[in-house]
Structure formats: structure tokens, C-alpha cells
Design brief:
Layout lengths: L5 E5 L4 H14 L2 E8 L9 H8 L3 E6 L1 H14 L11 H20 L3 E4 L7 H12 L4 E4 L11 H10 L13 E5 L2 E5 L29 E8 L2 E5 L2 E2 L2 H14 L4 E7 L5 E7 L1 H17 L2 H19 L6 H13 L5 E8 L2 E8 L7 H4 L12 H9 L1 H12 L1
Parallel strand pairs: 1-2, 1-4, 2-3, 4-5
Antiparallel strand pairs: 6-7, 7-12, 8-9, 8-13, 9-10, 11-12, 13-14
Length: 404
Amino acid sequence: MSNVKKVVLAYSGGLDTSVIIPWLKETYGCEVIAYAADLGQGEELDPVYDKALKSGASKVFIEDLREELVEDFILPTLRADAVYEHKYLLATSLARPLIAKRQVEIAHQEGADAVSHGATGKGNDQVRFELTYRALDPNLRIIACWREPEWTLTSREEAIEYAKARDIPVPVTASKPYSMDRNLWHLSFEGGVLEDPANAPDPDMFLLTVDPRNAPNEPEEVEIEFDKGNPVSLNGERKSPHEIIVALNEIAGRNGVGRIDIVEDRLVGMKSRGVYECPAAVVLYAAHRELFFLTHDKRTLMFRQQVANLYSELVYNGEWYCQLRENLDAFVNKCEEVVTGKVRLSLFKGSCSPIARESPHSLYSTDIATFGDSGELYSHEHATGFIKLFGLPIETRGRLNRGK
């Protein structure tokens, strides 16, 4: 790496990237450009510009990518109903390819010959960043600091001391060592005291959701309207998907909805524990799912479940820019042509319960489903022949066993 002249660093202002700027300069003698993406972190970004310059960056880019995150990453994954290992709603996984995509563009714009990130050698993010780099420009050099032989900061405590020695403030202390990652879709907590899955999360840790025990004693209802799988209105008011997510984070959060505690399988082979707050995501997944239950036939639903599992693995593994995901989008988008309608949900002390749904494309027929007389549409007598034929293999085996 001795011939690297200019590096674009994916910079968050957190512990790892805070120490990486001086480390890159001291180790390689190169110019470092810091790049931070606004993905909905809020006030966390306020000190980033000055902090990056103080840490030694020659230039700082801070760009608002919230709309792009929603339109190009969150919505396709929501439409696919992709949930990794039944619980993880993929927020960090969605943000990394977007950050890396813009990072490559800035590297081209600034004439940089390398890109860098602060992901550790044990995590998933290193894969997500680097697969995106390789997909968009395989010629860029990649400096994965945690995997470089010169990197000696092997613990968060050492990184904290390194930052203190260079007068760099970091948002982590030895007494509160877990890391946080925030965007529109979630707030995650990992590391430190949370590494032991036997430890319950600190009740004071949560920022987006109230303790369900302290949530209002009356349920709050919300109505979400979808058009071809995309949320378009909240409680009868037309809003952009971005605006709906922001509003639902507040509404669901005050009702204690959106806390998820997960032990997940990382791509690199180990299990890890993470705690997440994702109020809007929980509500939108629940609402969207109700509509495709209403508008899809049984075989399509069964195949969609397989697609959802595969899609979630691709996103989790950092394979956003792969041909298979793009092809799966074509299938999903065809399915979503009928996912139009309204869903009403009840939010109460941490629970999110769909209670009503309607769609102009609904396959549900009251005339057929009623326990009353359906006339020629469905007569009770029709079931006799159906059961006889459907159960014929079971009956045949039963006769064989009975004969024995």
C-alpha cells in the first residue's frame, strides 16, 4: 500500500472510523477524504464534519441519501418480504451497499486510488462494503484496516486510548462499550455487555421505543395504504414512503413497538447477538404482509416464501449488486402489481396486530367463505368427493397397514 496516494474512507464519526483517519495517514502517508452518508442518524451527524477535519481528513463529504435508501433499498426489500432468519429486518445490510456505492463515485470524482472502511474482520459489513466495491470498480484498492498487518488496535479499549492520545472525541466509553448504528429503518446495538446472550439489554439503552410496560394503556390504531407494494398514505393522508417511515417510527415507538433481540448467524461463520429498534419496519412489514395474504393464491404465497428467504440471504451477505437479486426483483414486482389496498393495525404495549384489511384485488370471497349457504359457489356436499380423492393415498396406506 506504500504507493496509495489518496483514500476515500467511509466515515461515521464512531470509534473505529475516528481512529482510522490518523492511522491511515500515519501508516501510509496518504491523503484521506472522509465521506459520511446521512441515512437518518439525526443529530449524530452534527459533529462529524469538524471532527473529521480535526482528525486529519483533507476533505469531508456529508451527503443526504435518505430518499435513495428508501426508494432503492428499503422498498424493494419490503416488497420481497425479506426477513433474515425470521427476525432480522436487514437495516444495516441495506445501508452498506448504498454507502459503498456513493463512496466509489466520490473516489472517481476526487481521483482517489483506494477506498477504506472500518468494519472488523469478524463482521458482515466488511463483506458488504467490499462486494460493492468489486461490483462497481474492481480496480480500486481496498484498505480493510482491521485486516491490515500494521493494524494493532485489537480491542475497543485500545482504540479508545489511541483516540484519546490524539485528542479525538469518541462516542464510546469503557463503561458503555456497545456500538450503535442508526438509520431510518432501525437503531442497532452490538458488542460489549451485549455479547453475552445471557445478559438482558439495559432498559435505559433504547432511544426509539418506550418500555412496553410504560406505553399508553389504550391501543392506538393506524391505517396504511399501499399501491403495488409501496406505502402511499398513513391514516388517510398521502405521504411519501420516507415520510411514512419517519411518522411510524414516532407512532409505533411511543407504543413500545419495534424491539427485537436476536442471535443471528453471521456470514463469516459465527453467531452474534444484536438488539434492534425498528418501529416503522415492524409495522410496515406486518401491514404489507396482510395485503399479499389477501391478494395471492396459495401456490404463489408458498413460492414467495422461498423467494423471501433467498432474497434475505443475498441482502444479508452483501450481494446486493448480483444478478440473482435483480432477477428476483422482477418476480417480486410482478407479484406486487396486486398488492394494493389498506390495512388497519392496532399498536398496544409492544404488540403490532393487523385488525382489518381490504384490496380491490382481494381473492377473499365472503359468499364462499361464509358458514351459511353459498349456493352453487360452494355446497357442503362438494366436500365429500374432494375428501375422498384428497385422502385416497392415506386411505390406501391405511388399508395396507390394516391388512398386515
